[in-house]
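ingest -> validate -> predict -> emit
validate: passed (alphabet ok, no gaps, 531 aa)
predict: started
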Amino acid sequence: MTAFQDDIEAVQALKEQNGSGWDAISPEHVARMRAQNRFRTGLEIAQYTADIMRRDMAEYDADSSVYTQSLGVWHGFIGQQKLISIKKHLKSTNKRYLYLSGWMVAALRSEFGPLPDQSMHEKTAVPALIEELYTFLRQADARELDLLFTQLDDARLAGDETAVEFIQSQIDTYETHVVPIIADIDAGFGNPEATYLLAKKMIEAGACAIQIENQVSDEKQCGHQDGKVTVPHEDFIAKINAVRYAFLELGIDNGVIVARTDSLGAGLTQKLAVTSAPGDLGDQYNSFLDVEEISEAELGNGDVVIKRDGKLLRPKRLASNLYQFRSGTGEDRCVLDCITSLQNGADLLWIETEKPHVEQIAGMVDRIREEIPNAKLVYNNSPSFNWTLNFRQQAYDQLAEQGADVSAYDRDKLMSVEYDGTELAELADEKIRTFQRDGSARAGIFHHLITLPTYHTAALSTDNLAKGYFGDEGMLTYVRDVQREEIRQGIATVKHQNMAGSDIGDNHKEYFAGDAALKAGGKDNTMNQFS
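emit:
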């Protein structure tokens, strides 16, 4: 007996209990509506998707070839279309997630208008987007099941029992569009209590995985910009604890925390760490500071000093009242950050790098795994990287090391179109193609994501449409490049009324009013041109 059939029988029993007043209620229609609304709360989604992530993490530990992926999305419709596409082309959503980027929330979802990625947007916009994404994913379920129910009715009407059995099996084994979201909480939007409160809202909206970074909340910068300021480990651990408490309070005991370190590109700290003994965590953090040894006589007004190994050390303090780290300490600080985060409740790591280089990432992960053997990463395949130039330079260096003649190439100008189609360019493109596979095998990357790809695709496709439509091609641009391709590629949005829920509404009207229902999908609906 399937859940669908169980629901039919349960509602039939209820109908019989309630007598003639329920004569118009169809148990099968109720079962259909329940199937189309499988997840009734965000917490149900959070638990369902946390279970998926934990399973995927365990499978990756056993086999690094089964890594996971996501694309960042900034609107529920974009997330919905991504999952519809995955199901259509790849037949399963297995190992595919969504990423919610704080950068895109700031740039596209703030009431202030477009903002830089500096935690200036409304914190409530983050859980609101999580809720919106899952609303659209649940609607994708409702739409796809509605199409199956319509096919089932048609097969029954035609008396085709083979088709009825096949369609019913598709309904019984239906795979939802609801997948895990890794959601960006930035640096926590305030103190640990503020982090806890926002994390609760995100989890209640459906988030099973929350990514938090070790920057100062009120100085937060995009990971690929300058001026990043980190916090001592104890401050960051308090926020990791805050997120864990939020998960536990809401009953998501296996919620996932992604601890991000920006230390590789962050040369500043707002605070000196508290230390009580040589070699403790605070002392290790302070040991990376750029200091000068001074005598007591050299102390100036307002100077701050650290005593270590019997010496007085004065950290270099900037006019901004920030302290700077020694140049070249970024990787060491990243490794310490990662080990410390995993030892204090984090589940996954995120190391923000300045370029996509497998061996650079692997060098840090190797060191982390000396302490935490199953350490694994979420990695940002960032649009902030010039992928073409970076990998052409890597290909150039590889060819040079192999003794190949690279005199035909200018390493600093490898982005040039004149190198397209060359041996070097093809080698670079192959490295890009296998980057995720190679990174997962060599550098412990469990999850690959692109933070803001749909920001760029929206801009590019709109530019192409506007260029032709407002130019000489006029309507041909839309018809040739959009609608004709939607039809030929089977893009569901060509029937935009159906995508927006019109047919679901028609079927509900029929459930509610029977033959008296006034339906929108009749013979005069112009959407029939696409049937």
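The chain has three domains: 1-36, 42-270+328-404+443-453, 471-517.
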